[in-house]
Write a structure and sequence with these properties.
This protein has 4 helices and no strands. With 92 residues, it is mostly helical. It has one domain (9-90).
Length: 92
């Protein structure tokens, strides 16, 4: 997801100070950290494994949509082994 957000007033001052003082490298990084902290505060980020599961599900859904739209090609096992012959040794 991409978003363009404008900050002014106290929010802009705090954001600039967080970057200037070295807490974050960029304003975007500070905003991302703030959103994650809000998620924790409101109980949306319970455990790392739950977050990883949700991210994996989102990625699988996106890949599925790309495949259905013809933006991504799925390879068969045979095609993968042909393209990456070193994987034959890893097959179990």
């Amino acid at each position: 997801m991409e978003a363009v957000v404008r900050f002014d007033g106290a929010v802009a001052v705090v954001l600039d100070k967080l970057v200037d003082m070295g807490y974050f490298r960029t304003r975007s990084e500070a905003v991302r950290a703030g959103v994650l902290e809000l998620g924790r505060e409101y109980g949306m980020l319970n455990t790392p494994s739950e977050i990883e599961d949700e991210l994996a599900a989102m990625k699988m859904q996106r890949l599925d949509e790309e495949t259905k739209a013809g933006k991504r090609k799925l390879l068969s096992e045979k095609d993968v082994l042909k393209k990456y012959p070193h994987l034959k040794n890893m097959k179990g």
